[in-house]
Amino acid sequence: MNLETVTGLVLSAMPIGEYDKRLVILSKERGKISAFAKGARRQNSALMACSQPFSFGQFTIYQGKNSYTINNVQIQNYFEDLRTDLEKVTYGMYFCEVASYLTYENIESTGLLKLLYQSLKALGNDKLPKELVRAVFELKALDFNGETPQVFACVKCRKKTEEEYPKNFSAKMGGLLCKSCSALFSDTILISPPTVYAMQHIITSSVEKLYTFILKQEFLQELICVANAYMKCYANGNFQSLQMLEIPLQDLT
């Protein structure tokens, strides 16, 4: 039995048989993996606490024929402050669903793992609107996945002069459009300069510095609308947690 240790976060957990659980873990070393936590549903199991979504730490595993089995776990963060708030839990589960949708086994996922960790921490900060955390997470997750929106110039003509400063966003085109080019497309979203600056911050900042700003409500609504449209265009998965969330500006995107 060859043991290895990976750093990761539990995305989901499913009961298997009478006493076991099947975990999906987003790991730094091996991307998204499935791992069995044998006996995790027994009352006195050492794996009971760590076999819950949001559990982050070091998982010692060994590889079987079709999946991994957990041998030992050292958990660093359970995100207990989220577990007592239904809305925060739902947002957190949505983030985990998106991370699962965007990742694969044996594909390096360090950036997305860090983003997920910092986003769960941000959900616990009551000074940050949860809708802002969600929009930032969505745009940065798609950035890590290779669908980076153009937020510094018109995605069509590349102009970025004062007269043609982009103030429209097209999810299908993948970025900002100047006034002239926006007339050619039907899916544009009118956005204000503060929203553009927020998008530039999201795309260029390190994960650790993402959640360092707050937007006025009118600009936050614009950012939500952009992130919602961009997700529908590039990651339109069946995210069950969204059924429990109130989708802002749903009818406008």
How would you portray this structure in words?
The longest helix has 18 residues, at 217-234. The chain contains 7 helices and 8 strands, in the order E-E-E-E-E-H-H-H-H-E-E-H-E-H-H. The protein has helices at residues 80-83, 86-102, 110-123, 130-144, 179-182, 193-204, 217-234, and strands at residues 3-16, 20-27, 31-37, 56-63, 68-77, 168-170, 175-177, 189-190. The protein folds into 2 domains: 3-78, Beta Barrel (OB fold (Dihydrolipoamide Acetyltransferase, E2P)); 83-150 and 166-252, de novo design (two linked rop proteins) (Up-down Bundle). The radius of gyration is 20 Å and the shape is elongated. The protein starts with a strand and ends in a 19-residue tail after the last helix. Strands 1-2-3-5-4 form a 5-stranded mixed barrel. A 3-stranded antiparallel sheet has the order 7-6-8. Helix content is 33%, strand content 22%.
CATH third-tier fold name of the largest domain: de novo design (two linked rop proteins)
Using the CA coordinates, give the radius of gyration: 20 Å
Strand content: 15-25%
Helix segment count?
7
Helical coverage, percent range: 25-40%
**Weakly predicted, low-confidence segments:** 248-253
What is the straight-line distance between the termini? Answer: 52 Å
Largest beta sheet: strand ordering: 1-2-3-5-4
Number of strands: 8
The outline comes out as elongated
> How many domains make up the 3D coordinates?
2
Q: Strand pairing plus helix content: what structural class?
A: alpha+beta
Biggest β-sheet strands, sense, barrel: 5 strands, mixed, barrel
Mean pLDDT: 91
CATH class of the largest domain: Mainly Alpha
Tell me the CATH architecture of the largest domain.
Up-down Bundle
User: Element order, helices and strands?
Assistant: EEEEEHHHHEEHEHH
